[in-house]
Amino acid sequence: MTRKMWMRGTVAAVSAAAMLTLAACSSEQAPSGSSEETASGEEEMAEGDDVISIGFSQVGAESGWRAANTKSIQDTLTAENGFDLSFSDAQQKQENQIQAIRSYIAQGVDVIAFSPVVESGWDPVLQEAQAADIPVILTDRAVDSQDDTLYESFIGSDFVLEGEMAGEWAVEQYDGEGYKMVELQGTTGSAPAIDRKEGFAAAIEGSDIEVIDSQTGNFTRTEGKQVMEGFLQKYDDIDLVFAHNDDMGLGAIEAIEAAGMVPGEDIKIITIDAVKDGMQALADGKINYIVECNPLLGPDLAEIAQKVVAGEEVEKRIVVEDLAFDQEAAAEALPDRQY
Ligand code: AHR
Fold it and tell me: Does the pLDDT at position 28 exceed 70?
């Protein structure tokens, strides 16, 4: 491999003005594509500006990534930055998210934002928000609605591309070895599980990497470990694990070690997220490669919410840029890693 760290993907331009407004009050690093605009700003929100009330329904607290994403949102949508945030945790249940969105509609908030736990089934509640004239912003995960007037903008990573980046690296490293691979999928029906699976499968097509099993570990460390234990009981010839997030990969490490094998050597591991725990395991040689999924979506959400409330045009899709790390690049990046 010639480059230790590489990136692909595009970033829709973000408004420098809005990032400037937020910069003074938020110390975190915005998604890679917008960090420069954020870092340089000094302006503060003008006195007398109206406070924007925003209801945010979060997926849950299933992973290190999710914790970092929640922190980014709560640290950015502050009173200091001109927001009145109502935050709810749906505990990975769609019905809880629908209930939260209905309650934000009843409260008459200025903006509703949410990260949909699964892709399908949102049209009725989004139509209710539209009927109440409350704009909706999607963060992190998409919905599969055919009617894109039901939301103003969708801010998040390209999950298909993340899967492709992981699969391309696997082919580059392991094609020709006859590797047998198991896959730990994210939450069934969620955009990242569907898209990462698709992207990875497309990238390894035509190689001799064989996917011998694929099951959901629901993006959690505990379920990732349990599913990996089952795989290890069922197969004695696993060479490679593709886990749709770091937490499931970390659970797989525990299962592999408990079975008396060496993760990263006897069984290679590729994951997605690049949160600190995952990066540490990568630097320690227990994971072999990680594709990043940037969770710091708070600044972009704040900017889009401000524009929507001001009646300005916003981009329907804002793609966040992601990096990728091998073991050496992880060791270099770890000291400055924020999440
Ligand atoms: O939607 C983003 C995914 O959700 C992250 O990769 C995962 O860690 C989280 O649970």
Answer: no
